[in-house]
Amino acid sequence: MESMSVKRVMGTETEYAVSLSGAGRYNPVQLSFDVVNGAADSHSKNIRWDYRQEDPVNDARGTRLERAAARPDMLTDAPQLNITNVIAPNGGRVYVDHAHPEYSAPETTDPFEAVLYDHAGDLIMQAATERASSQTGTPIELHRNNVDGKGSCWGTHENYMMARAVPFDQVTRLMTL
Question: How many domains is the chain partitioned into structurally?
């Protein structure tokens, strides 16, 4: 097999929808916390994520939003008592992103390994959902789809490492062909 000329760090993040089988009304945020808690084991349930470097009111173009103008759900760097994050057995991260569970695969420089980590995420999330359903006594369903049927849509992100010197306009032009 030929070696790649440039090693790139890559990874995926996959957002999932949750619902209750046959239920009319339910709280998707609570179901998301239940699923993420279902991903925890005795070794990972007490690990806390470090948000000290996060700056949620500064976007990739360098534009800052005044904190007073930000919606409360945007201030993800504020200390919160109920932030749920789990380190997956493969080194990935399982967490609640707004009102849905999300899986962030471990970073790698091997594209085949990236695909394996992505598929492993589906297995990890399905097992977490089954555990959460058993623990809560509710039939939680997990969906790797792009819409929740209520106007919200999400999907999979790709992550790329690049030099900060690359002009952002050039990045958006090339990435949104």
Answer: 1
